[in-house]
Amino acid sequence: MNKERCALVAVCLPNEETNDMEELKQLVEAANGIVISSIVQNRQSIDIRFYAGRGKIKEIAEYVETLEIDTLVFNDELSGSQIRNIEEITGAKVVDRTSLILDIFAKRAFTREGKLQVELAQLKYSLPRLIGLNRNLSRLAGGIGTRGPGEQKLELDRRRIKAKINDIQNELSELTKGRETKRKQRVRRQVPVISIVGYTNAGKSTLLNTMMESEYSNVKAENKKVFSDDMVFATLDTELRKVRLPGGRRAVFSDTVGFIKKLPTEIIEAFKETLEEIKYADLIIHLIDINDENVLNHKETTTELIGKITDRDIPVLTVYNKIDKAANNKLITASTYDVIYISAKNKLNIDVLLEAVDFKINGEKHKYTLKIPNSNIKEYYWLCDNRFVEDTEFDGEGVNFNVILYDDEKGRYGNYLKGESNE
Predict the structure, then answer these.
(1) Quick one: which of 50, 77, 93, 407 has the fewest CB in 10 Å?
(2) Could you give the CA distance from residue 248 to residue 246 in angstroms, rounded to a whole number?
(3) What pLDDT digit, counting tens, does each position of 259-288 carry?
(4) Is residue 184 part of a domain?
(5) What is the pTM of this model?
(6) Is residue 121 assigned to a domain?
(7) Last residue of a domain, one of 342, 362, 382
(8) Contacting residues for 402 by C-beta, under 8 A, at least 6 apart
(9) Residue range 301-352, pLDDT digits in tens
(10) Is residue 182 in a domain?
(11) Which three-class secondary structure state does DSSP give residue 225?
C-alpha cells in the first residue's frame, strides 16, 4: 500500500511554541503517511473560515500541486466548515490533529472495548461537523482520517448518530461493570494497584514487561507480555499485570493509554472508564523519556491530564526512562525513593524501582530468623508461598529459616522470632 504524501500545516499564535511539529510528523508516520513538507504561519489569531487565512491557503494549494500532496494535516482541531473551505481551494484531503489521532486509535484498537471507545470518540467528533463534512464525503477514498465509522456512518443524520452513540455507551457501561467487579475483588484481597502513566512512547509497556520478568516475580505463568513497540500509541487498552515485589507481597500494575499534547476531548471522554484505573491507584509511576527534547512540556501535559482524571492526592513516583540512550550532557543523579533513573529495555535499575514501589506501598521490611514449631508448620509453608524464605533447616521440634517480613506483620510472628538477620 502506497503511503499518503502529506504536508503539515500549523498556525503559531503569539507566545505559542511550534516545537510540536515533530510530534505531528510522528503521528502522521504512525498513520502510515509520509511527510513531504511543513508549513507554519505566524498569526495573531485563527481565521474562522480558513484557519490560516485565504491567502495562505491559496499558497498551500500551489504546494499541493507542485509537490503532489495527497493530504493536508493541520496541527489543530478544525470545524466542518473550515475543512470544507480548505478542501475546495486546495483540492487535497484535509485532516486535523484530532481526526489524525482518532485514526491512529482506530488502527490500534483490537479489543471489543477498545474498538467501541474509538468509535464513540469518532462519532462524537463527527456529530457537530456533519454539515461541513457531508459535502466532501463522496470523494474520500479512504486512508488517513477515514478509518473507523467510515463514510456510511458519517452520512447518518444526527438522530441516528445520537442513537448509535447511546447504544455504544450502554455497551461500554456493561463492560465497565465487569471491571468494577474485578476492582472490588482486588480491594477485598488488599492487592495494591500501581498505574504507569506518561507521554506516549515513554516506554510504559516495555517497563511493565520488564517488571514481570524481574528476579522477584514468580507470577509469570499467569501473566502475558504486553505489546510494545517504538511508536506513538502502540497500545490503547489498559493492561493489568501481577508483579511480586522485593518483600514478597504482590501488586497489580496497570499500563494505560499514552498521553499527548492536545489529546482530543472526545478521546478522554470515550476512554474515561478505562482511564479511571488511574483514579483508583494506590501509587502512580510517572514515566518520562529522559531524552525527549520537550521533556518539561510533556511532564506538564501528563500532570494536567492526571488532574482531569482524578482529584485524589495519589502518591507519585517520578521515573526517568531510557538512560541507556542518554547523552553525556544529560543530568542523571543518584536515584531516590521519589525520583528514579532506569532503562526498561536494558533492565537497568529495575530492582531499585521495585524497591521504591515496595517501600511506598508497604513500608519498611527487614530480614529475620524464625523458628516455627511443627504444631504451626502451616505458617512456614504460607511464608514459602508469599515471602522470600532462605536457609531452611529442619530439626525435631520444627523449622529454622530466614525470611523477609514487613514491619506491619512482625507482630504476627513475634512468638517465632529468634532475632533480626545480620545479612
Answers:
(1) 407
(2) 6
(3) 877 777 777 777 776 677 788 889 999 999
(4) no
(5) 0.79
(6) no
(7) 362
(8) 367, 368, 369, 370, 389, 390, 391, 421, 423
(9) 888 888 877 777 889 999 999 998 876 555 566 667 789 999 999 999 999 9
(10) no
(11) coil
